[in-house]
From TrEMBL:
This is RDD family protein. Residues 17-129 form the RDD domain. It is found in: Cell membrane. Keywords: Cell membrane, Membrane, Transmembrane, Transmembrane helix. Pfam families: RDD. The chain crosses the membrane at residues 30-51, 66-87. Its main location: membrane. It is a multi-pass membrane protein. It comes from the Bacteria.
Amino acid sequence: MLQNIPSSFLVTQDMHASSGNRFVNLIIDLIIRVVLVNLIDLFGLLLFYVFDYDSLLMWNVNMSEWGQIFLSLFIIAVYYITMEALTQRTVGKLITRTMVVNYDGTKPDLATIGVRTLCRFIPFDAFTFIGGNRGWHDTLSKTYVVDIRKFEEAVLLKNSFDQIGNHNETINE
């Protein structure tokens, strides 16, 4: 991925990930979320069958419904924050070759990713994509999901124009 983003660079509509890619991201990440949430059960079962250790399994089985909801939300938040803060991508975004950026093309900081993740828990957030390709978790966190190829091409083009401008300034001096 590109590291040298020009200071005057801005994300434009043509770089945005398509609605189709955003939908595929949603489906893939939904599958990953279900798997991650159920890993505790699977790990508890593994410990029980291999080592006859049932504490984790019993803890999870006896957890209240609210406890399970909060644990699930915690696991989902850790998934999104970890993936997007470290790589600007989730598994869905890796597959569709998209990533999260700020308006100026830079990598969002941890606080921005945190806001983005919390906004995903707003009821009906997934439906805010109807009629567009930016949802509430994008607009409220002021982030954009871009197609990496289009984004990199735009950055390279902007850098080329900036180099031409710098070269012309050097000749004129």
